[in-house]
Specification:
The protein has nine helices and 17 strands. Helix 5 runs antiparallel to helix 9 and helix 7 packs across helix 9. It is an alpha/beta fold. It is 33% helix and 29% strand. The protein is globular. Strands 16-13-12-11-7-10-9-8-17 form a nine-stranded mixed β-sheet. A six-stranded parallel β-sheet has the order 3-2-1-4-5-6, sandwiched between helices. Strands 14-15 form a two-stranded antiparallel ribbon.
């Protein structure tokens, strides 16, 4: 008999079906909800043992549901999270937590005040390859980190309600903060929009940390090919997490060295060495973590505090782009 908590999924558009698939495979999909009759009919056919609801209120009122996974548009996240907490449900919400820092802090406080868990869907923190990279960094295999850059580029998934920064960059920000261990001191950024007035199609953000570490994030949905790449440069090595690759090519270590002959730099290149990583689906890891958050009082990598840190960086990026100025942040907050 399955005594694991039942999960309800709200929002069956782009990402909700993936959540349903995983929770069903785990034996904990208890209900789902969407306002679209067509989406509901499709889900009913795929998951006849789960309860279908046509409104969030009906799902929230279901006493058999311990936690909800929210995959609705970002603009609705704050309201959905608040209603779920008021109904006594633990909450997993896809990124971003919401669109306003003060509101996010209020949601975190509301969850804590009633003893409920609030977790954010920063998926790549649960990717086995990124977790292996984190372990390499934590073990000092790269030495002191000097520079991190990420490219998240593709052609498509163009939005008219949010720009490329808010759509793509939360994943990269969450990874960079996890590796850096702190918020940056200062953020600058530029953007360009071509398709919809006022909506950036490409953004380039620079993060400067108090310990000398620097990072940049380049995102675009107007790129001729898909590239999801995170490069971490340390004093003793360089690692590349290429999520568009597969197998051993996904996570590589480069032991290049730079020496000096007088005042002339001498570069010695080394062959790439694969870094071993697990083969679990990142989303399955994330869903399993949400269950452990509910049942074992686990603090996940993407708890509400982490979601707020990502929002702080996103908001500073926005202000930097709009003002053309460098935006200071408190670098002492641990990530």
């Amino acid at each position: 008999m399955n005594d694991r908590p039942s999960i309800g999924v709200i929002g069956l558009g782009h990402w909700g079906p993936n959540l349903m698939r995983n929770y069903n495979a785990m034996g904990v999909l208890g209900a789902f909800c969407d306002a679209s009759p067509a989406a509901l009919d499709k889900a009913k056919a795929a998951y006849p043992d789960a309860t279908a609801h046509d409104s969030p209120e009906a799902l929230f009122a279901d006493p058999s549901i311990a936690g909800v996974a929210i995959a609705t548009p970002a603009v609705t996240h704050a309201e959905m999270v608040r209603r779920a907490l008021a109904a006594g449900k633990h909450v997993f919400v896809e990124k971003p937590l919401c669109l306003d820092i003060a509101e996010a802090e209020t949601l975190k406080a509301e969850a804590e005040s009633v003893g409920l868990k609030l977790m954010v869907g920063h998926l790549l923190l649960y990717h086995p390859a990124f977790q292996a990279l984190q372990n390499q960094v934590a073990a000092g295999k790269l030495g002191t980190l000097r520079y991190i850059y990420s490219n998240r580029l593709s052609l498509g998934k163009i939005r008219r309600e949010e720009n490329a920064l808010w759509s793509f960059a939360p994943h990269d920000i969450s990874m960079i903060l996890a590796l850096a261990g702190s918020l940056p001191d200062e953020i600058s950024g530029t953007a360009s929009g071509h398709l919809t007035p006022g909506i950036a199609d490409t953004t380039l953000t620079h993060l400067q940390f108090s310990n000398g570490l620097a990072a940049h994030i380049f995102v675009s949905w107007l790129h001729p090919y898909k590239e999801h790449r995170l490069v971490v440069v340390g004093e003793n090595g360089m690692a590349v997490f290429n999520d568009a690759a597969s197998g051993p090519e996904k996570l590589l270590m480069y032991r290049h060295t730079v020496g000096w002959d007088g005042d002339i730099p001498i570069v010695q290149k080394a062959d790439a060495t694969p870094i071993a990583y697990g083969d679990a689906e990142p989303l399955r890891n994330e869903c399993e973590t949400f269950l452990k958050v509910i049942t074992e009082d686990l603090v996940p990598p993407s708890d509400a505090a982490e979601g707020i840190r990502v929002l702080k960086v996103l908001d500073a990026c926005r202000r930097a782009i709009e003002s053309g100025r460098n935006i200071p942040l408190a670098g002492a907050d641990k990530a």
